[in-house]
Amino acid sequence: MRLSRMLPLSSSAINNGSHISSSTLPPSFYSLTSRQPSINPKNPITRNFISLNKSSFPPRKYSIFTNKQNMSTVCSSKSDNGSHDSPFQGGESFFREVLSSMEAVYLSRNPTAKAVLELVGSVADDQICYDHFAFRTFGVNGYGIDSMAKFFLDFGYTPREELRFPAKKLRALWFSPPSVPTPHGGSGVNGPLPRVFVSELLVDQMSPETQDIIRKYTGISGSGNKHAALASALGSLTWEKPLHSEFQQLARESEYAAWTLVNGYALNHATISTHQLKSRLRDIKNLNQFIEKNGFKLNSEGGTLKVSPDGLLQQSSTVADSILFQFSDGLTESVPCSYIEFAERLVLPQYSNLPLEEVQEHHRRDGFEVGNADKIFESTSKEQLTRKAA
């Protein structure tokens, strides 16, 4: 297995904020020609506003949550074979290039995600398929779920279930991908299209101080909510860099709010579909042991393995990487970035007699669970970031 968009970013890259471009942009975006040295996955990395030269990237082989009463179906249609049948709309190659750019930013900032993808893919030369991509948003003034969802809806994604997280003051909606043939051997963003999970902070439920800060920066952004997907693909904030004191205020009240203030629409996490692996790592328990044995720390909130009440959705995740962020007042602090998740979807009882080689994705447990997702959110929490590895 080969990963593309391998984006090492040096720790000297600092001082200018929180933006990084991807290699799918036109040539005019590429102004920085110096190559960056390799990074140490164990150390925090810094984030800056730079444009990368296309030659910095290797040739592309492939680009690289339960509380049922809180879950209500928004839209769900299945074809006769059990799959969700919504046709792809628009240019597929363009859509996949945007996903590739989102992935590129994600890999450049999160050495753990990059290393884990390489590590898992190296076992039996396996190919990686993504279960879902997840994004965080501010639920105010059009900057919430709709801002990111619009891009995916335009290309044929279907809204499915809403999930509520009262303690965290969050809501989320997930979207199933459209039907599109997958090229033989396609993997990563060139494989089966991922589900999309978009959450939002219920800003109106926050303290007046926190509301004022969030409304200040979304207000500064103007119409930036209309360009959420572009911001994600570029790795750019649509608002200005905040003051350090404002970040601290949000962090005291909501880790989610603080994360979103400095990361914006950047990909919060990508999820490996473990059951689509060919090696013994298709069993998520084996995968978790393998990841920890290789020195990576897993999110321990609620146990390393998060299991839905029906036992058919099993999830785990690494702890987020940290990155140095320079605030508008010149102060620099390490802030949480993103992480990588793993999901195994087991075969539904009605299909238990199918031979393994005949089992397809629509034969497996779909959707998300509030209980699982609530604990996965903790992957970016200070408690998990500062916890010593087992």
Tell me the total number of β-strands.
12
Please give the share of residues in helix.
Answer: 25-40%
Largest β-sheet summary: 9 strands, mixed
CATH hierarchy: architecture? Roll
CATH class: Alpha Beta
What structural class results from the helix and strand content? Answer: alpha+beta
- Biggest sheet strand order reads 2-4-5-6-3-7-12-9-8
* Contiguous uncertain segments of 5+ residues: 1-83
Integer count of domains: 1
**Cα shape:** globular
CATH topology: 2,3-Dihydroxybiphenyl 1,2-Dioxygenase, domain 1
Proportion of β residues? 15-25%
The tally of helices reads: 10
Summed over residues and divided by their number, the pLDDT gives a mean of 83
Reading the helices and strands in chain order gives EEHHEHEEEHHHHEHEEEEEHH
The first-to-last residue Cα distance is 29 Å
Q: Any idea what the radius of gyration is?
A: 20 Å
Family: Belongs to the 2-oxoadipate dioxygenase/decarboxylase family.
Protein name: 2-oxoadipate dioxygenase/decarboxylase
Pfam families: HGLS
InterPro entries: HGLS
Commentary on this structure:
The protein is an alpha+beta fold. Helix content is about 25%, strand content about 15%. The chain has ten helices and twelve strands. Strand 10 and strand 11 form a beta hairpin. Helix 1 (about 90-110) packs across helix 5. Mean pLDDT is about 85; it is low at about 1-85.
Structure at a glance:
The chain is an alpha+beta fold and 390 residues long.
Which key terms come to mind for this protein?
globular, 390 residues, alpha+beta, three-stranded mixed sheet, 2,3-Dihydroxybiphenyl 1,2-Dioxygenase, domain 1, nine-stranded mixed sheet, disordered N terminus
